[in-house]
Amino acid sequence: MKFMKKYRHFMIVPVYFIFYILVFGYVEERSGIQIHILHTRLDAYIPFCEYFIIPYFLWFLYVAGAVVYFGLIRKNLPEYYRLIASLGIGMTLFLVISLVYPNGHTLRPYHFEHENIFVDMVRFLYSIDTPTNVLPSIHVFNSVAVAIAI
Length: 150
Known about the structure:
By secondary structure, this protein is mainly α. Helices cover 61% and strands 3% of the residues. The protein has six helices and two strands, in the order ααβααβαα. It has a two-stranded parallel sheet with strand order 1-2. The radius of gyration is 18 Å and the shape is globular. It starts with a helix and ends with a helix.
């Protein structure tokens, strides 16, 4: 109880996270909608590299680590609230745009040249995250917001 009182400002994170996951799940699982495929000629030249799954998963730690740092360790509430507001506004805009402008890409390989732990991690990611709603990029936005906060 003492923790909750001392860090009540941090409670906005799980509350927003629940909202975000529920709406994101709806956006990802909608059926019967027309998706605009985003593609450029340059896309054909992007090689698949299963090792990039490591920085992809580390991105989640980067964002979560910044929220924990500013909210629980640094304890500078104005900085924390600016970061939370930036992330919340950006992620909410992402959800709204994804609802209004469903989009996706066709960059995922149909088969993999290797069989290793990294390919297994990619398969896991593909099983839980569809190649839809990629514009705007929540990864880019959150990365920039965290970098500015830091």
